[in-house]
Design a protein that fits this description.
Structural class: alpha+beta
Distance between the termini: 13 Å
Number of helices: 10
Helix content: 55-70%
CATH class: Alpha Beta
Number of domains: 1
Largest sheet: 4 strands, mixed
Number of strands: 4
CATH topology: Glutaredoxin
Strand content: 5-15%
Length: about 200
């Protein structure tokens, strides 16, 4: 039986980018299938009374500096030097995560994720500006006009809301979150545990 990982994903999180890269290699090593589930991180925060680290730990001396150091260590360990912090962070991901729902409906979600992550975290752009988004889609060879239209489709909007609500019901409180069966793992630093469970 093929083992599977459910990956609750939003472009807004730099750790989602880093996890995506490492999870690909875990999938190749273990043969596990990764199920990407697009959700809206802002919606999860609101529903769970959570806050992004920059808000949650703003008054904790040394905490944000340590998190930055930890990201640097993770990047070096896994050879992810293409990563660049987005100068527009935090980027409101609503439009591009709706695009992920549309891409999933049309059968090319992983390709869409790969391409849009480049514009968020490798060649970082202001990916909450519709003009910038459309240009990024064109650069990546995506059907920009269709995607821009689909982002406003009621069915796409409803599916994103449903995914986000279902994630919260399952116990998701932040991104990246992974499930192997009924086992929940939060954060990129738990990926070694995910891998252990898949071996």
């Amino acid at each position: 039986m093929t083992k599977e990982v459910d990956f609750y994903f939003d472009f807004a999180s730099p750790n989602a980018y880093l996890s995506h890269k490492v999870l690909k290699s875990i999938s190749e090593k273990t043969g596990a299938k990764v199920n990407y589930i697009p959700v809206l991180l802002g919606g999860i925060f609101k529903a769970t009374n959570n806050n992004p680290p920059m808000v949650q730990f703003a008054e904790v001396k040394g905490k944000l500096e340590y998190q930055s150091l930890e990201i640097t260590r993770f990047i070096e360990r896994h050879g992810l030097q293409s990563f660049q912090m987005n100068p527009h962070f935090p980027v409101i991901s609503l439009q591009i995560i709706r695009g992920a729902i549309a891409a999933e409906m049309d059968g090319y979600l992983e390709d869409y994720i790969d391409k849009v992550l480049v514009h968020m975290w490798e060649q970082p752009k202001k990916m909450d500006d519709p003009e910038v988004i459309k240009e990024a889609f064109l650069e990546s060879g995506l059907d920009a006009d269709k995607l821009m239209s689909q982002m406003q489709d009621p069915d796409v909007k409803a599916k994103l809301i449903s995914n986000t609500e279902s994630a919260v019901e399952r116990g998701v409180f932040g991104i990246p979150t992974f499930f192997v069966g009924d086992q929940i793992f939060f954060g990129k630093d738990t990926l070694w545990q995910v891998e252990e469970l898949l071996i």
